[in-house]
Every structure is written in C-alpha cells, then in structure tokens.
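Researcher: Sequence recovery benchmark, item below. Answer with residues only.
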C-alpha cells in the first residue's frame, strides 16, 4: 500500500514539476511527427544534446521526410553523419528508412510493436516514438530514468543485472502517467537531465525530496548501483597515407568493428605504442611500400575516446615508388577524398596536414 502511495506521489509531483518548473528547451519538444522524433532519438543515442542538435537540424533540412532519407545515396548520408560516431546507427537509420519507404508505403508505423521491429530501434526509442507521436502508454527506460527511480524508491539492486532490468522496467511502467504518456516521458527525461543529475543532483530544490528514499537515508551518491564496470581498452592505429601519382590508397571499413562504412588509409594496428622504425620494419609495411619509398611526414599523438575504447593514432605519409594496391583498397584522387566520410580522428589529421 505504502509503495503504491509512493508511486502515485512520484508521478503526481513529477508532473507538477514539469507543468510549473521544467524550462528545458529542445527543438524537437512537442514534436508529433514520428519521423522527426525517431531521427532525434537515434541521433541522441550516445551523443550530447548540444552536439546532436546541429546534426538533427542538418538532417531535417536535407531529408525533410522519411522518403527523402530512404532515397538518398549511402555515401551522402554517411558524410552528413560524419563526426557523430557510432556509425552503425547511421546504417540502421538508412535501412529502417528504406523499409518504411518500400514495405510500408512511406507511412511510419503507428504501433509500439511495429516501431520496435525497425532496425536500430530498441525498447527506449520505440517507447519514445509511440508516446510522443501517438500518446501510447509506454514508459521510456534509460540511464536517466533508472537513476531517478533507483534514488526516489531507494532501490540498490544493480540496474544492469537481469533482476534489476526487469524490476526497473516494471516500475517505470507502473509510475507512468498513462493518460499523458508523452508529457510524462518528457518530464522524467528532463528531470533526470536537469535535477536528479548523475553528479551533484539538485536535491535542495527538488520537489520530490520529502518522499525520496535516497535523500532521506543520505545515500543519493550511492545510487544507482551498477553490476559491471566496463573495461576500457586501448588500440594503436598506425595509418600509412600511401601516395602514388597524386592518389591515395583508401578503403571502406566493412568489418564488424568501430567506424563501419567509413573510409580510412592503410591501417597497421597494434596493441601498444610503436616507434615509426618498428612500423617500417613490419611485414605489412614492407609488402605495401617495398624497399624504396619516401617518407613525406609523420604526424603523431591523435586520440579519440570512444565509450569502451581509446584509439591512439599516428599518420605516416609516404610516397610510393611503384603502384601497389592491396586487396580491399583502392586509389582515390587526393583532391576528391574530402567528399568521403572519415572517422573524426582522420579528419583531425587531414585538417592538421593541410
Ligand atoms: Fe533525485 Fe535528490 Fe530529488 Fe531524490 S531529492 S529525486 S536524489 S534530486
């Protein structure tokens, strides 16, 4: 009974906060077009709002409808996505747009289950689209929501454990204001982002404070609990910018790894830092460059932080003495490579090498 009362207070106070005090401005707030909601949600996965906003506006301008996006060439869309990272999102976005255009006559699906069938759409995004576009009663559950719920209800079960996931999903659905699911989902997302923040939550001005278990027990900073600590790995990328007759060797990354569908130069990857001499002595370099080549310049110290890994990169620009195209690579005119989509670390290099 007490738990049900607490749940009711939570929803009521959260909606009150939203109505009276939520001043967070987002360009897609109140948006009812499922295509635009979907686009904003996919862009915002693993991307900060400030960074995502610019991309969202660019995409909407260039592809105002799902049909326009579906008809766009892959390379053009990837180029527009360049810099956002997590390129599988872009690949899935295109694939889903084409499914909608061809199999659904360009009509965005209107049911939660059919939205969930779209490539790259998980329960969170499906709930966001279903609630924002159609006001269907599906609660969004993500890190923000889990944090708010874990703190308010004082739950110390790991949010990433099987038991925790089931419990938080059920609780999120239970506290959802089913009549106003669009407003409620927006409220809890904004509340998690601006008041009950991961670091330094604003408990002193929080309307939920009187009922918040974590606050009352003084364990705010201990919640939520996570089971797994993600191990971060380091990778060292030595890019050989191999030039022959004003052309550069490039390839599109196709393996199931980071930066799928983006372009890169000849890559020699190692698990630790190497001196340029060690790279020249490697079999891969010798096969590529042979005995005669000219080193034009070496730029080192590039770094890109991804969620679970850190990429360290060096670029060795060489002039090849004779033409050699390794399998899977092609020669591209130097002047034309700016039209291709590259990972951010290579764009940083191109900028510096200018
Ligand atoms: Fe979050 Fe603090 Fe409010 Fe509790 S009192 S809901 S911990 S901001």
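Model:
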């Amino acid at each position: 009974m007490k738990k049900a009362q607490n749940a009711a207070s939570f929803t009521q106070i959260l909606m009150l906060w939203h109505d009276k005090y939520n001043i967070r401005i987002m360009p897609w707030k109140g948006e009812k077009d499922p295509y635009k909601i979907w686009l904003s949600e996919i862009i915002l996965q693993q991307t900060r709002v400030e960074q995502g906003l610019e991309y969202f506006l660019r995409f909407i301008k260039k592809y105002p409808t799902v049909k326009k996006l579906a008809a766009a060439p892959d390379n053009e869309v990837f180029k527009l996505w360049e810099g956002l990272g997590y390129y599988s999102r872009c690949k899935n976005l295109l694939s889903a747009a084409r499914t909608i255009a061809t199999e659904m006559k360009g009509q965005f699906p209107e049911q939660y289950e059919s939205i969930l069938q779209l490539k790259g759409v998980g329960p969170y995004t499906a709930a966001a689209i279903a609630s924002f576009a159609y006001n269907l009663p599906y609660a969004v559950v993500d890190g923000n929501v889990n944090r708010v719920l874990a703190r308010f209800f004082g739950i110390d079960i790991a949010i990433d454990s099987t038991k925790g996931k089931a419990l938080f999903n059920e609780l999120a659905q239970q506290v959802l204001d089913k009549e106003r699911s669009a407003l409620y989902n927006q409220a809890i997302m904004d509340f998690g982002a601006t008041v009950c923040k991961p670091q330094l939550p604003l408990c002193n001005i929080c309307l939920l404070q009187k009922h918040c278990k974590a606050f009352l027990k003084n364990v705010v900073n201990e919640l939520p609990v996570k089971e797994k600590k993600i191990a971060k790995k380091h990778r060292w990328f030595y890019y050989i910018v191999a030039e022959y007759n004003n052309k550069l060797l490039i390839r599109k990354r196709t393996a199931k790894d980071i930066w799928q569908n983006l372009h890169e130069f000849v890559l020699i990857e190692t698990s630790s830092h190497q001196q340029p001499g060690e790279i020249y002595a490697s079999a891969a370099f010798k096969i590529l460059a042979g005995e005669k080549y000219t080193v034009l310049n070496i730029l080192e110290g590039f770094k890109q932080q991804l969620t679970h890994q850190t990429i360290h990169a060096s670029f060795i620009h060489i002039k090849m003495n004779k033409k050699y195209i390794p399998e899977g690579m092609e020669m591209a005119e130097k002047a034309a490579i700016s039209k291709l989509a590259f990972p951010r670390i290579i764009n940083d290099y191109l900028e510096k090498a200018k």
